[in-house]
Amino acid sequence: MATFLTLGMPKPEGHRPLLAGLLVEAGELPVELSADVGPSEAADALAFLVHSGRGFAACADDGTGVLRVLAATVAALRGDDVRAAWSVPDPAWVALVPDPAAEALREVLVHVVVPDVARVAAELAELGLT
Questions:
Q1: Residue 121 burial (CB count, 10 A)
Q2: Order of strands across the sheet with 56-59?
Q3: Threshold 0.70, pTM exceeds
Q4: What would the 3-class secondary structure string for the chain be?
Q5: Where are the domains of the chain?
Q6: Widest CA span of the chain, in angstroms?
Q7: What's the pLDDT tens digit per position in 79-119?
């Protein structure tokens, strides 16, 4: 059974948090991108995944891995340097993603599978993503 957790930065009323419903515990979701791969492999995978017309799930062991996936996915959607975003993800940059980019992110990155939602959510909060 998957457990869902809603995370988000304080935003104006009616705004959907960037990370709403993103984290799920390991279960039966197929994973198409692991936070453990190298920057080139991630860039190649994201070049396909963000333009595939369907959503995908990634997996990560911790908040840093989730941040890596988020930053690189946003970079792929924006046409930015995916390898740099993967290698040195910036939590402040991810937190400031504008609403249109956040909606696009939610359409392609459906879930990030993590071993412990509560622990990973706490790690993301330490990075400024709540």
A1: 21
A2: 4-5, 23-25, 109-114, 56-59, 33-34
A3: yes
A4: CCCEECCCCCCCCCCCCCCCCCEEECCCCCCCEECCCCHHHHHHHHHHHCCCCCCEEEECCCHHHHHHHHHHHHHHHHCCCHHHHHHCCCHHHHHCCCHHHHHHHHHHEEEEEECCHHHHHHHHHHCCCC
A5: 4-126
A6: 39
A7: 999 999 999 999 999 999 888 888 888 889 999 999 999 99
